[in-house]
Amino acid sequence: xxxxxxxxxxxxxxxxxxxxxxxxxxxxxxxxxxxxxxxxxxxxxxxxxxxxxxxxxxxxxxxxxx
Length: 66
Description:
Layout: H1 10-15, H2 17-25, H3 27-37, H4 40-65
Helix pairs in contact: 2-3
Keywords: Membrane, Transmembrane, Transmembrane helix
Transmembrane segments: 45-62
């Protein structure tokens, strides 16, 4: 990451490509730092997006069985 503090919003990760690079190099450390640095509202958005993604993936796998 460019500095020692984690990003405070989801927009920061999109504006600064070095943030994505740092997350890809060590997703365990920087991923949790990033998540813990988010506001509660952004954490809720992230969890909702993950849940929606899992739901769509489950439907996709179910249709492949048929």
